[in-house]
């Protein structure tokens, strides 16, 4: 139960101020704005190095209307662990600047770079220790801030500067690391996937994440107009297509009574109930320049089939896990 | 903008930021700005959520209003409006 | 000698504990909010002992059993930024792994305290004592205190909080103790009563800063938000660094002040460095850490033989106490510098370079020679040190330094 409505949330002042230097049409700020609409009280934010961090904190300007800490690329989860530990200690002692707060939500924002790859150790450690914090993965599927280099989150065949679609090799050869499964395997209370195309869904899940006792993990698909190469006004549409093709299903997973319990969110549940509404993955791929080589100069039916197969298998697995 | 920047003796310690980005105008980044047809608008508020700049606020009467000093002209609002009451108008 | 067991102010309890245990015990008395630490030889006893205190409910500390040293210091940074007192400990490659964050902790002006059980850096792997690890972070903006014995370790671990948190300083502090030599050696350590420690360290106080949302204590404050750790472009980074330079300069004044206060409650005082037998010394050795205890023994022997030997134990290495060094040296004509690390490709060891730089523009300068020794735990025996003094005496005879950098105690 979250009790958030679009109308009320629209009136709530933004935790992320305008005037940041993110690209026009950037999905990161959509997700961040929506997540921060769901704050319920005192909140402290940590942010790994990346587009969001750089574009919102160019000295002397800052876009953060919340207390915010950035230190390095790989340690947003470790920073958050320290803040959470400080809060617990002060509550236990009954003194210290944070001791008076009944709740303190600690939120870590990191990109796919700072989560799948260089940040996975700190994330895994924080999850294992069970800190009460929310980790938001802003997944634009490459190291975008440094110029579109591949990450463990980059999908199969996506062209990036370190996995370019060349004459011999058609983009990234490896599949996207299954980060949600990795996090779920840590048996944390709450894991959910987000798409900015459904703002209310994002806000409700963010609120549930804050309310969860223990680690909560929110994985947002974050289309990048520059890195994925599509016109900026299509950002929300691309995000929507990721869900409608079941490439990025929307769901929640709670660890209850010793097992993961999966629940599909309405946009994906709708597809589960009416499989004919599932759109072919090509609808998603064809609008993005990073997959252009799958269609031009010649259609790579082999690769498109592999990708569709991967999507279908994983969608099937998710349906099984959700008992559908 | 040739302002005189503070020296190390004036800056606050701890390297904390000193100005809100609200004071930094990004409105000149793009070439177009949205215009809203109030007759068609259903006050759904989605444009407020879909604006990466947070430049669309819900104003008097529940209608959207755009902060032109910060709108970068990305066009998501116009693209996503369920009743297509927003059009991006070239201003430069 | 400056030890005093029964100080008129406080009855101190004598404990038989090793250096690591001294660190843990002192920290227990301080009862910081957060200890985030990862085990590495020879610091492990610190982490283990502290975990016992936590398990027995003797402290209120939140102990974060982090998964690496990088996360250890990162968690301390988060905690300190949130307004907590945060402590960690490491050694050798653990310090090397958190190297990135040491600069950030200092740059963000967070008064974290860290104990470093000095151990050689890999490779090859060596778990024994030298100063390679802490010397590797000498540029990071941390205050560095080197301890000669377990008593100094205990005392430094209390003073460190007051030094780092001083409003004019606001820098993290590294307390260095020689791995195994101090960390694992049981010594007599006089410990203050809990209430005296609590009164001395008090509560963490914050400087006030003016951020984008107004004035606030320097911490992540939900009421008045601060942005900590922004991006500096070319137009601001240099200025922020100058603020750290200034803080280090203030530390040179603050450390003796805190020390004087500590003397009042303990009877022990340390300051920046300790000259011994320097008033009329003709040859002197300067160094850091436990070796200076052995040097003192050798100086006493030499004095009995009529040699005018002296020593300067440098306690605070960063900030480098140039003025105090010049004053302690007085007119002593020959100085040997004991470097327990090697800086490959440089004209001399780090301590030697700092000494020579200190003296370069002085009208009166001693002859200075570097003695790199003890790498990887190679013992600095009285015999070795006597040999160094003999070398210094030859320098005095010749009036020149035949070999600037000498590697002693190594087989050719």
Rounded to the nearest angstrom, the radius of gyration of chain B is 17 Å
CATH uppermost class of chain A: Alpha Beta
**How far is the N terminus from the C terminus of chain A?**
23 Å
The level of helicity of chain A is: 25-40%
Q: Given the C-alpha coordinates, what overall shape of chain A results?
A: globular
Strand order of the largest sheet of chain B: 2-5
Instruction: Provide the CATH superfamily of chain A.
Output: Thiamin diphosphate (ThDP)-binding fold, Pyr/PP domains
Low-confidence stretches of chain A: none
CATH class placement of the domain at 29-90 in chain B: Alpha Beta
* Strand element count of chain A: 9
CATH architecture assignment name of the domain at 29-90 in chain B: 2-Layer Sandwich
Biggest interface, residues from each chain: A-C, 50 and 48 residues
Q: Work out the helix count of chain A.
A: 13
Q: Which sequence of strands runs across the widest sheet of chain A?
A: 3-1-4-5-7-6-8-9
Number of strands of chain B: 5
Main sheet overview of chain A: 8 strands, mixed
Structure description:
The complex is a heterotrimer of chains A (324), B (92) and C (412). The longest helix of chain A has 21 residues, at 301-321. In chain A, a hairpin with a 2-residue loop joins strand 8 and strand 9 (259-264). An eight-stranded mixed sheet of chain A has the order 3-1-4-5-7-6-8-9, with helices on both faces. Chain A has 13 helices and nine strands. With 324 residues, chain A is of the alpha/beta class. The model of chain A has no long low-confidence stretch (mean pLDDT 97). In chain A, helix 2 (27-37) crosses helix 8 and helix 4 (76-93) packs parallel to helix 6. Chain A has a single domain (6-321), classed as Rossmann fold (3-Layer(aba) Sandwich). Chain B is of the alpha+beta class. Chain B has a domain at 29-90: Alpha-Beta Plaits. The longest helix of chain B has 5 residues, at 46-50. Chain B starts with 18 loop residues before the first strand and ends with a strand. The mean pLDDT of chain B is 95. By secondary structure, chain C is α/β, with parallel strands linked by helices. In chain C, the strands form four sheets. Chain C has a seven-stranded mixed sheet with strand order 3-2-4-5-7-6-15, sandwiched between helices. In chain C, strands 12-14-13-16-17-18 form a six-stranded mixed sheet, with helices on both faces. In chain C, strands 1-8 form a two-stranded antiparallel ribbon. In chain C, helix 12 (350-360) links the parallel strand 16 and strand 17 (367-372). The longest helix of chain C has 30 residues, at 237-266. The two termini of chain C are 38 Å apart. Chains in contact: A-B, A-C, B-C. Chains A and C meet through strand 1, strand 2, strand 3, helix 4 and helix 6 of A and helix 3, helix 5 and strand 11 of C.
């Amino acid at each position: 139960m979250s009790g958030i409505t679009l109308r009320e949330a629209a009136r709530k002042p933004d935790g992320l101020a305008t005037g940041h230097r993110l690209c026009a049409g950037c999905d990161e700020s959509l997700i961040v704005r929506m997540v921060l609409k769901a704050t319920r009280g005192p909140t402290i934010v940590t942010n790994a190095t990346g587009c969001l961090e750089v574009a919102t904190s160019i000295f002397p300007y800052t876009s953060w209307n919340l207390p915010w800490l950035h230190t390095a690329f790989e340690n947003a989860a470790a920073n958050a662990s320290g803040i959470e530990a400080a809060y617990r200690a002060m509550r236990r002692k009954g003194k210290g600047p944070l001791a008076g707060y009944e709740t303190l939500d600690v939120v870590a924002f990191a990109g796919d770079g700072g989560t799948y790859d260089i940040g996975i150790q700190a994330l895994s450690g924080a999850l294992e220790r069970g800190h009460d914090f929310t980790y938001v993965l802003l997944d634009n599927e490459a190291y975008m801030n440094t110029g579109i280099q591949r990450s463990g989150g980059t999908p199969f065949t996506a062209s990036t500067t370190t996995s370019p679609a060349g004459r011999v090799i058609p983009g990234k050869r490896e599949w996207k690391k299954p980060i949600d499964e990795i996090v779920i395997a840590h048996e944390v209370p709450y894991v959910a996937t987000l798409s900015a195309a459904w703002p209310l869904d994002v806000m409700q899940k963010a609120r549930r994440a804050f309310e969860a006792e223990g680690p909560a993990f929110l994985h947002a698909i974050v289309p990048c107009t520059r890195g994925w190469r599509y016109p900026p006004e299509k950002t929300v549409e691309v995000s929507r297509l990721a869900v409608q093709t079941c490439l990025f299903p929307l769901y929640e997973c709670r660890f209850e009574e010793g097992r993961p319990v999966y629940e599909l969110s309405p946009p994906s549940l709708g597809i589960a109930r009416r499989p004919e509404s599932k759109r072919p993955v090509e609808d998603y791929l064809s609008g993005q320049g990073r997959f252009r080589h799958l269609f031009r100069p010649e259609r790579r039916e082999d690769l498109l089939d592999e990708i569709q197969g991967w999507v279908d298998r994983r969608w099937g697995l998710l349906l099984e896990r959700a008992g559908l | 903008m040739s302002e005189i920047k503070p020296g190390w003796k004036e800056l606050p310690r701890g390297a904390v930021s000193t100005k809100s980005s609200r004071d930094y105008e990004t409105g000149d980044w793009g070439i177009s700005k949205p215009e809203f047809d109030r007759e068609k608008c259903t006050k759904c508020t989605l444009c407020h959520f879909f604006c990466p700049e947070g430049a669309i606020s819900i104003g008097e009467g529940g209608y959207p209003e755009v902060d032109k000093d910060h709108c970068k002209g990305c066009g998501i609002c116009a693209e996503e409006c369920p009743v297509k009451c927003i059009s991006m108008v070239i201003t430069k | 000698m400056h030890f005093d067991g029964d100080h008129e102010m406080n009855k101190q309890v004598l404990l038989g504990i090793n250096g690591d245990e001294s660190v843990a015990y002192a920290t227990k008395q301080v009862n910081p909010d957060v200890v985030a630490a990862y085990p590495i030889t020879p610091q492990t006893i610190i982490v283990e002992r502290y975990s016992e205190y936590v398990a027995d409910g003797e402290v209120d500390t939140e102990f974060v059993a982090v998964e690496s040293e990088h996360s250890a210091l990162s968690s301390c940074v988060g905690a300190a930024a949130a307004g907590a007192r945060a402590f960690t400990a490491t050694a050798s490659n653990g310090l090397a792994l958190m190297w990135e964050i040491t600069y950030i902790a200092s740059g963000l002006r967070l008064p974290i305290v860290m104990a470093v059980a000095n151990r050689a850096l890999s490779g090859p792997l060596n778990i024994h004592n030298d100063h390679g690890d802490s010397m590797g972070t000498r540029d990071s903006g941390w205050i560095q205190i080197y301890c000669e014995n377990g008593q100094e370790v205990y005392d430094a671990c209390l003073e460190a909080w007051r030094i780092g948190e001083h409003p004019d300083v606001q820098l993290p502090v590294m307390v260095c103790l020689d791995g195994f030599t101090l960390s694992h050696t049981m010594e007599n350590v006089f410990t203050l009563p809990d209430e005296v420690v609590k009164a001395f360290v008090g509560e963490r106080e914050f400087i006030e800063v003016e951020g984008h949302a107004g004035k606030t204590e320097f911490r992540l404050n939900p009421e008045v938000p601060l942005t900590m750790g922004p991006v500096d472009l070319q137009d601001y980074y240099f200025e922020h660094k100058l603020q750290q330079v200034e803080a280090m300069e203030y530390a040179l004044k603050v450390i003796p002040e805190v020390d004087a206060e500590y003397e009042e409650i303990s009877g022990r005082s340390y300051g920046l460095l300790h000259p011994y037998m320097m008033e009329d010394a003709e040859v002197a050795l300067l160094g850091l850490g436990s070796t200076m205890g052995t040097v003192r023994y050798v100086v006493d022997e030499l004095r009995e033989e009529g040699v005018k030997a002296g020593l300067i134990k440098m306690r605070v290495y960063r900030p480098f106490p140039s003025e105090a060094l010049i004053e302690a040296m007085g007119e002593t004509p020959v100085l040997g510098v004991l470097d327990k690390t090697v800086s490959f490709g440089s004209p001399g060891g780090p301590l030697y370079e700092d000494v020579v730089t200190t003296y370069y523009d002085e009208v009166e300068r001693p002859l200075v020679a570097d003695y790199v020794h003890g790498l990887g735990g190679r013992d600095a025996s009285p015999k070795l040190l006597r040999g160094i003094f003999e070398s210094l005496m030859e320098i005095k005879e010749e009036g020149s330094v035949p070999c600037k950098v000498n590697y002693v105690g190594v087989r050719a």
